[in-house]
Each structure stands twice: as structure tokens, then as C-alpha cells.
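Continuing the series of single-chain predictions for the mutant panel. This is the parent chain; the variants come on the following pages.
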Amino acid sequence: MSRLAAACFLLGSAPWLGAVLPAAADDASEGQCDAAGQADGRCSPAAQDSSTCAEGFFLALTKQPDLALRHFVLGSLQASVPVVKLSKDGCAVEYAVSCTDGSLELQQSQTQPCADSVKLAGPALGRFGGSVEVCAAQGTKLQVLQPLLDLTFDFSTKEGLEVEGCISLSTASALPHLSAVRGGLEMQQAALVARKHDVGGCPTWTSLPEDAVARGDDFAAGGHSVLAVTVKQYQRYLVSQAKELKDNGPPAEESMFSFSLIGAMIALHDFKNTEAYLAFTKANCGVAIPLGIGVMAPAKFADAASAAGDPAQPRQYVGPWASGVSDTCFHPTLPLFLGSGSPEHTQTRRMWDAAGLATMHEGDFADLSSSSSWMRMLREAVGMKEPTEEEVAGLIAPLLFERVFRKRPTEKEAAVFAQYATFGKLCIKSAMIAKGPWLPGKIREIRSAVLQFALDSPAAKQIDAMLQEPEYADIRRLYEKTGEPVLEVAVRNLADATLFAGLVGTTDMTWKCTKYLFRDHSHVRMFRRSPTDYLWELMRIQPAVQGFTSVLPEKRSFKMYGEDVELPAGTPYKFSNSMGNRDPLIFTDPANFNQERDWSEMGEMLSWNGKLKYVVERNYTGAPRHCPGHDLSVKIATHVCEHLTRPLHEWGEKPQDSGVKNGIVKILAPGSLQGRVGVVAYFDFYLEKHCVIDRFIQGASMGCYSDDELEVVQKTGGIAHTLDEELAMCPGATTTVVHMVAHYGIHAYQMGYSNIVSKLLMTKAPEIMTPDWADDYMVALYAGITHLTLRMYGSRHSDSVRVPTSTGSTPIFRVGNLYAPDVDIDHPHFLPVEWFVPQNLFDMGFLPSFNCFHGSLRTMPWDDMLNHTDRNQWHTLFKNARDKYKSKKDWVLSFYETYRTQDNVPVWPVQENDFTNMFWKQDEWDDGLEHMIAFNLIGAHRLEVVEKGFKGESLQFVIRLNEFHAIETRPHFARYGGDLYFNAEGLPIMLETPDGRQVQRGDKDWQYWKFAWRSALITIITLVDHLHLTHFRVGNVLASAVRKSLSPSHPIRRFLSVFTFGSIFVNMNAMHTLIGPSHVLHRSSPFKDFEALSTLVPEHLKPPTDQFKSIVNDSEFQRLPKMIQETPYYQDGRLLIGAIKKLVKRYSDIYRSDMCTASGVVCDPELKRFRDELVAENAEAHYVTPFTAETDCAEFFDIIVYYLWTVTGWHRHVGTVGDYFADPDLASFSWKEGEAYARPLQHMIMSTVAAFTATAQPKLIEDYTHLFKGIDREERAVAAMQEFQAELREVQAEIGRRNHLRLTTQGFKNVYADPGVVECSVAV
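Parent structure:
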């Protein structure tokens, strides 16, 4: 039914729209009292007369469309029955009926405490007789706690069902008309069904027609007052119609008033026919009712399925909707009007199959991408998104008629045929529309055009030949009796069937498909996962054909609204496929859209005139009247719906695409930049535009443009992919000028002169970096990082994590095997100024300056100064110092202790454990230091179990570092190495040097080798575990893949935005300072071929699933020795991992049905892309990947747990080095061979790393719920994150308790799994 037609029905029935319905609020308050059981002025307390327990009581759902009830008896076996639950704002109250001294009594129990401000209006308490009622109120959840018997579909409801109307409790004596409803569920059900048949309506009715009309008021539940008025009016009509049937028999034609009421109901249900008829069905509890010029059968699957499968189903020329027919729409010989099993019907179906209908679905369709229509152009011009029904029909008509008749209609012919979808569908009321002034002529015109098209088709010629054969003699005789040409009748019938069932039905299915997809992006995902399953379920929920009309084979009596109605044979008898498809006895949760229904259910649906399991097999025995075009209709609907919804994205965004413009481009778009040349930085999938940057000022944005706004000048070039290329793009004299100015300024600074540059270097530190140990690089680096950058920095919190707006692939920057995206399209805020300065301006100024500054630093002269007696020596340094220092540590920290960030946070990380005070004794380090590092702090994850004897001592643990001895070092630097063995108590006993010597406690070089071991351990952890594994192996891969493959509104993109925040920026910084040669890490470390490390290290990194299996996997953890299990790394880390596991499961479960099949296969296209991109990113960086193209959903989210642990708790565990690197005597990146301390220059360069990596980043425990705003299932996603926060607070409290105990008993604390300390990502 068109919206125009429905609007006419509404206008035509305006007089009854003025009826007044009592306010829903008044209904809701009736019979309610406060939770204490006291009348509050709005309720009706229970009657004072009590009822005996033996008599029992009824529990019922009332004042809503879905009615249900059940009788209960209290006795020795059941002394109390829970009946009602009310809940609001975290508090809940339950009510139960109990037996007290032989009388029924209503009692309450509070299951969840209520705040003083929360008031629940419940039923009155105490003994009751008669009836008591409690109704749903706004903001309060009302549930019935017992299964009841549904009065429409005759099934048992579920426990805890939420009620939108009321729940009533009645004594048995109050409902004497239900005296037969006793015993078990089956007996009660049978009694209720019998009562429905006796009444001719709902079993609760006692006064007709008043109760039947009043039933309409129940549809006001939930504020649907207009719907209630409509149902009430229709009930009045049906009551009168039942009396008319009794007195005068079936009418000659359908009432226009009835037609108007049906149209109004459909309009009120958003033009969903099924929902409208479901309302009528519930209004009468599913009994037979008058309809049109006949009767609607009871709304049961069993009745409709039996009739559909009846091999002798009677039919006659009365029309498909029991309203009479007219030759305006159909020929009387159409198979629609021929009885099943008749020779004529059987031969017609066989002839049609042979003429091509059995195989017409085979073969592919041509692409529709080039198709266009004036309707689509008009729709787009006025801003309409959803395709119109006419547009859908215009695409279907040529496909359908070509397949049926094996002849392609012209565009003009197809356009005429398509009009039938608009006008011809009203043939469902053909006798009624035949009286109209214009419509009958239009329909005849279309039918005539189709007939002329079809008569000379290959299908018609084949039919003509078959009609001459004896096996089709009966159908030929039927056609001859009409007096019309036999072939014309035969072809007309096929043409009419193609129009009415084929075009109208397929258009309806396809149009519904597009509407559902445009209105709910979860349906886009479901459809694209399995179009056929989707369309089947769509047609179960909202079938294109609501039912079919048979006729009574003999005289039959009905009870309707209290009237005894006897109808003659031949009366139209309507069966409802749509109501059968909603029968809860057949379909689990029938109102829920579930395309993954088991075939045992899906195969039962009736939408194609028979059970689907028989329809798909073309089984005439199981479904003698099945739709012959099922396969073709589904195929066409899939093709057209896919085409029309192609612009839609599975998660509500625009479709992803790949950019086709790369390299150097000229801007063609009008504006100030027209004609300028730039470089394509990346393709923004959200904007569907290429974003361009200035080719000379790296990072300077020139805006984003569509394909036709850019002209490719050069396909490659313009983007720096290496450090050398990047430096080359800086202004020509940058390096020279930076070196010259820096040298001049540094000299003035060191000599105490005052000029513009030296003032920038006149730091707040009490000491000056003198030339006897500090070169130009050292001074410039320290000034740039500590004196300038860190002072501008402000602590970042969860509000710095921005909602993503783009998806795209950006150019990559590479050093050896390591790479990082050149741009973070999520644009995290790094400096406070970014909150106020437009991103483009910030990118234009900060990024190029940053890159060129670091590039210039890298090219500064370099002398390790290890072979000097008076330079880079501690004795010289202390001699020339301005102040006196007790230790090297005090001197190092003097350069940082006066510095604060913009929000007054110290730039040097706050000391967690004072190793000097704890372990520096008699001018040497106590062996407890190595125990502390290995078992309680940063080294615990590298502990290995051994069984080794040494001079009578059992060595049971070791941390091995000799494998790193092969890495070559620059002249005079010591190489890394040392395998340190510990006894059963965890004390260091022996160290095996790289050359095989065994050094033990008390040996003269014991302190030296311990220093070497500590330094090598902390450095290897920093270089391998922190930098390579955490930042690049996991953080960089995860951040890159998620931005490339997941759209901004994809729930996994939003989720991982928390854990990938700032990763790209910090890794790009690391590419310059830590990975790149001749910079911070290279100059402070001893390595000779530094760049080779970026190739060597990644190839030896284990996948996170192997690296962390002993802490993440419960069974692997149990295999560890108890002493390792009890280390804080494992004990505290597993607390945090437990919370992460719960979060990942809780969050993924919200969307699992959209992303995974029932068998666990990844089916969401974006999640597939993400998984595949993770595989590709790992391969690109030469990492062994835990992901494969076959990774299923369970494995995928299990691996994600490992990744999230890596970038959170693990990152904090291996990334906190301030306590170690504060003291050159404790550990450093490098040292001269034979010296148990670091030299000043190398250690101070290294110290800038400790300061820069201590900047405050968003903590894991913070609130990130803003990231989930507007996404699918937002409330559940936010709830999952809030539960995670609550669990993290518990983890934090437990770790706090443990650290208090550690401090008081052992003198240390380990906060590196504390969610208030752990960052949400590797942003630092």
C-alpha cells in the first residue's frame, strides 16, 4: 500500500479519530501503592476480603497488547510464589504471594537497596481478595517473575518478562468465567483455547461487545493513544460485521470503511503491514474474525502451514484478499484461482516450469552501476537518501521480464512495466479499485503493454507449442472456454503473475531491504554477510505477501465476538503467512530479526506460499502452490539492494575507497592555492579526498581534494621516506645555519657571554655544560629537549584522546626494517598549544621545525672523548663544577631538578625506589640490588630456570646477556654481556663472562661485572623489550593497521583508539632520536653499526603470544616455579591482565554477532581488513605474526588481549628507567672497558631519554567513554568501559595494599601494573 493511499484512508476516516482515550498515566497509576504497601493517593489497595490458599490466584498481564495469564495454587509443595519485580536507578523490590494462616498474602523483599530519593510504586501488601494491580511507570522497570500462558499464540512466556502495561493478581473467585483454567500448564492452555473458541475472542471477555471494544484501550500502553483509538474503532466494526455475517451471510463487497481502517493501521506502523495485522490479531487473541467478504482463519502457524501444504486446497475466482476480483487486474483462469491438485492448476505450473521458470534464476546479472533514472536524480537533487519504491521497481523490471520471457524489454517498455509496482499492487483490492475513474484504465494499459511485449517472446513460443501437446489438454480446454485466443490467455496469465507476484513482490522485498539498510547500519552488516539469509529473515518478519485466500470447502460454523456465525461453502477463507511466521511455538523470539536462525526454524517460514524448505527444493508435494520465482526474486533483490546500498558503510560511515592520486600534484580547485604544487600525503576515507602537503615545508597542509580537483604532475616523489630524504627537504642552508648558530651560541653560553642564542641556552640548571665534557650536540640536545620542549609540555589525560574522524593510508618513514606512518590521522594533542591552534597551522610550524632540528643535530660533529685524560672525566668535571656534589647521581639530577612542565610536573621521573640508600654500602653495591632488579622489578620477565651447581651452591635462576656480546662496539667501549646466576633465595652467586670466566662474589672484578650486567640488562630491555617489541613490534603495527582498515565509527576502531593513542607520533620521534643513526641512542650507546640493529633486532623478536604466554595464559603460568610466580611482575601483572581479558570479552561480545558467524569465522568486512592488515604490517616489518588470514574471531580477540597488555602494563614495566639511569654508578647505556661507571657525556645524552620518556600521558584508569559517543550500541559500549574502570579501581586498591606491605617488609614498591600509573598506550 502506498503512503498516498494510506494517507487517503486516514483522511477518509477522520470522524473517528476524534475519539478520546483515557490518559495512559491514569491507567498506570490505578491500583498502585508505594513500596511500603501504603496507599499514596494514586493506588487502589487490595480488597479486605481474603481468599483461601487452596482456591489459588491468577497472575495476568493486562492493559497492553500482549495478554497472558496463569493460575497458581499454594500448598505444602509451594508456600510462596514470586510474582512481580520493580526496579529503578539501581534498586529493586520483588513481590511474592504466600499462604498465611490459609489465606493469600502479598509480601515484598528488597533485593537491591534503594536510595532515599528513589520511590517505587508497588502493589498494596498484606492479605488480599478480589484483584490488585501494578502498572509500568516512566523510569521504572516492571517484570513478571513467572512464565504465563500467552492468550494469542498459546505459548508459555519466559520468566522475568518486562511488561509495558500492568500485572494483575486476582483471586480465583474474582474470575469465575475462568473456573476451568486449572491444573498444569498444558491443562490450563487447553482450557484457555477452549474458552477462546466459546467466546469468539479473548478468554478474559465476559461482556460482549463491550469487552471486545474496550480491548482497544490496551493498545495505549507505551503512549500509543492514536493506535488505541484505531484498534478500538476496528473492534467496533468487527463486532458489527460478525452480527452481519450471522444475520445475512457474507457481503457482496468489502466495506470502504474497513479498507480505511486497515490503511490507517498500516500507516501507524510505519507502513509495515505485518505489524498492523499483528495488532489486529492480538486484539482478538488470534481467533477467526470477519475480513472483507469472508473470514480470517485463526492466527496459527499450524493452520496456515496445513492449508499451504494441502494438495487439494480449494480456490475460486474471489481474489487474493477475500474482497472480490475484477478483470481489471486478473483473468479468471489465472492459477491463483485454480484449486490445488486440479488438472488445470497442475498443468499450468508444469507448463510454466518447462517454459523457463524453473531455471530463470541461473546466470549472473549485468552490472547496474551505469543505470540511472530520473527518480534517482531527483532524489539526489532534493537530498533524499533512501531510494524510492519507483526507483527500485525501475531497476527490477528489466531484469525480471528478461528472465521470465527471455527477451530484453527496451528502456521505454521497462519504464511502463515498472509503473505496475505503484498502481498494480492495489489489485489486492481489485473489485474495489475497478470502480475508480482513472486507475482501472492505467492498470489495463500496463497489462496490455506487457502482453504485447510477451506474445512474441521465446517463452510465449514455447508455451504455444506445449499447448498443442496432450499433457496440457485440460488447461487448453479451460482457455478455449473463455472464447479468447488460447495463446493470448496463456501468456496474459504468465504476464499478470509476473506483474503481480513477480514485480510487486520482488519490489516490495527489495525496497524493504534498502529501507532497513539505510535506516540501520547493523542491517548493512547482516545483509553483506549473507544476502540470502538476510532476505529470508526479512520476508519472515515483513513478508511481501501477507497470506493467501482459499475458500471453505463446505458449510462451517464460527464463534465471532459472541455470535454464532454459519458460513456457506465457497466463502473466502484467508490464511495469514505473516502471523504464522510470528508464531512463538515455531520461531524463537519471533519478533527479533535473526538471519542466523537454524534451518529447522528458517525452513518453516511460509512467505513464499509454502514452507521454505520445500520452496527451495521446488517440492510440489510439500508446497503444491509454492512461488515459482523464489530463487529469481531473491537473486534480483540481492543484486538491486546491493547496488542501491553500495554507498552505505557497515558501521554508519561512508564507504571506504582507495586513493587513485599519488605523488606530486597540482591543485585545480578554485581558491588561493589553485595552481600550487604539493604532495599527496594520504587519502582520507572519511572525506573521500586526498590530503595534500607542501612539498617544501614538510607537514604543511594544503587541504584535501577530490580526484577531479588534482592533476598528477609526477607519480612518485615529494614525500620523505628516510632520514636523509627528510633532511634534504629542509631549506638548503638549514644544517649550516643551525651548526653555526649553535656553535656560536654554545661557546658564548659556556664562556658566560650574553647574546640572543646564549640566552636561549642559559638554562635554569645550576651547572653549565662545560667543553671539557659536553660537545655542541650535547648542549643543543639538552637545551632543545629540557629547556624548551619539556617546559612547554603539559600532562595529557583522557580528553587528549580524540574521536577518530578519518581512515586512510599515510606514507611511511623507514629506518632499516623499522617504519612508522609519517602522519597520525587521529591528530592527538601533544602540546597545550594544540588545543587552541588549528591543526594545519600546528603541522605547518611544529612538524617541519621538529624534523629539521633533529636532522641538523644528527649531522653535528661527534667525538666519544673516551681516550682523553682530561676530557669527559669525572674528576675533571667535579673539579670545574660550580657546586660540590656527593655523588655522580646528584650532579646528573642537578640538570633536571629545577625544571617543571607547563603544569608544574617535574621533568625527571619521580623516584620510586632509592637504590643508593638501599644498596650503596661501603662504596660498593650490595648484592641485594641485583636480586631486587631481577626478582622484584624490571628484570623479572627475563628470569630463566636452570639447574647448575657452583662450588657447592645450587644455582636455580639466571638472566642471560652473553648472547648480546657479539654486537660490535666503537673503540674503547666495553661490549655487552654477562650471564648472572642466582641461588634458590634469589641472591646473585656467580656471573659467567662472555669468554667463559666464572666470576663470583668476593672476586676483585665482581663489582665491575655486576655493573656491566646491570647496564647491559637495562639497555637491552630499553632497546629490545621497550623500543623494538613494545613501540614498534606491537604499538606501531596496531596503530597503523587500525587507522588503515577501520572506519571512524567502527566499534573496534573506537575501542583501540584508547590503546593506540599517540603511538604514531612518539614512534616518529623515536625514528629520529632512538632508531636513527648519529643521534641520542646511537651516541649514548656503544654500538658501532647502529643502523644494522634496526634490521637485526626485529627478526629475533618473538610474537607477543609467545613472549607473554607465561603471564597471560593460566596453564603456562602454573608451570613457572613458585618464586617466579610470586614476583610482582607476575602477581600484579596478572591482576591487570585479568581486567583486560574481561574488557575484551565484554566489549567484543557486544558486537560479536555482527563480526563473526555462529561458528566463529570473521565475517565483518572491516574486521577482515584489519586482520589482514595486521598480517601485512607484521610482514612489512619482518616480524613473525600471530595473525593469519584464517585467524577466527576467538583467536583474534585472544591475540588482542596480548597486544593490549603489551602497550599498557608491559610498556610501563620495561619503560620506567629513571631510577636506574639517575646514577652513572648504577647503570648506563655505555661505559669504557674496565670502568664500573659511565662517562659524563654518554650518560648525560642518555639522561635526556629518561626525561623525555617520563612525560605524563593518559592513564589506563581514566574515563574514555567519550570515544564511544554515537556508535552502534553506545550504551552497552560505555557500560563495558565503565565496568572496566571499576575493575581497574579494584586492581589499583589491591596493588596499593601489596605495595604497602612490600615497603614495610622489604623496603621497595612496584607500581608498574597500577592502572593509575600505567598509561593507556605507548604514547611516551
